[in-house]
Amino acid sequence: MKRIILVVLLVSIAALAGIVRSYSKTGRSISELPRVVSENSNSQGDVRDEIRKSYELAAGAKVEVEGINGAVKIETSDTRTAKSSEALQRRKIIIENTATSLKIRGEKGDAGIFSRLFGSSPSEKILLKLPRQISLVTQGVNGVVTVGEIDGPVEVHGVNGRVDIAQASGSAEFHGINGNISVALKRLEKEGISLNGVNGNIELRLGEGVNVEVEAHGMNGRISSDLPDFVLEEARHGNYHARVGSGGNSVSANGINGNIRLSRTTTAAAKTEEAKIKS
Q: What's the distance, CA 136 to chain centroid?
């Protein structure tokens, strides 16, 4: 079991500095920092609501982030901003967990009808610190999604913003993305990569030894690569067929309004050599 830290900051720019201390416990217990709401007369008059929790997850656990009105960064905390304490009640962050799963979702709160119709909604900023061995599902996010290196598959659906994934393994799905996508695949399994309904450019960085067969239909853009083993076999009327290396692993793209570029991830040895050349 690996311990993960989740910090939920339902934030607005009110001065909470000095109120929140760090809490930590050893063993398998769950530690929780009590919920804090602070309202100050700063220049923006916003309110911050912060929750801190830590959980334990087994290797390969499924992590889901859903219905978030703001950016998501898979590394360390969660922030909401609102103009008043009452505004924070219009949305809630729900956290559900077991040893093999963690789900964080935003939903409408218990505010009255008048507030829901005419009041402003808080915005969230999710920041998580997770173990690398997870599978990740992110959907319904109105903001940028940034993910570090994980040793597992990813699914990203319904995102209004850029998606940047430093590393995934096994498979990847991107559906309904309004923004550019950049993802590195350390290895690829038979499920391959699925891209559907993307309004933006796509960069696929393949790990050493990862070979792919690309099929694209209804594409308003082009497929390109500077790899020596890249072959573009068909390109006409928005339909493309391309191959990197011996092919095999599938990259399926449909309804793409942008370009797809294929490259290789930079290995540690290559980075060291590059640094030597620069110095």
A: 8
Distance from chain centroid for Cα 29: 27
Q: How far is CA 35 from CA 49, 170, 215, in A?
A: 7, 38, 50
For the chain, the structural domain boundaries read 1-130, 151-279
pLDDT score at 81: 45
Please, what's the b/e burial string for 232-247 (b: 16 or more CB within 10 A of its CB; e: otherwise)? Answer: eeeeeeeebbbbbbeb
Give CA–CA dist 192/15, Å, rounded: 47
- The distance in angstroms from the start CA to the end CA of the chain is 42
CB 50 within 8 A of CB 69: no
For the chain, residues with pLDDT lower than 50 are 1-43, 76-88, 111-119, 268-272
- What is the model's pLDDT at position 69? 84
Q: What is the pLDDT of residue 152?
A: 94
Taking every pair of Cα atoms in the chain, the longest distance, rounded to a whole number of angstroms, is: 63
Q: Are residues 53 and 8 in contact, defined by beta-carbon separation less than 8 angstroms?
A: yes
Q: Are 60 and 152 in contact (CB under 8 A)?
A: yes
Could you give the CA distance from residue 259 to residue 199 in angstroms, rounded to a whole number? 10
Res 99: pLDDT:
84
Q: Are 218 and 199 in contact (CB under 8 A)?
A: no
Q: How far apart are CA 37 and CA 85, in angstroms?
A: 7
CA distance 252 to 194: 5
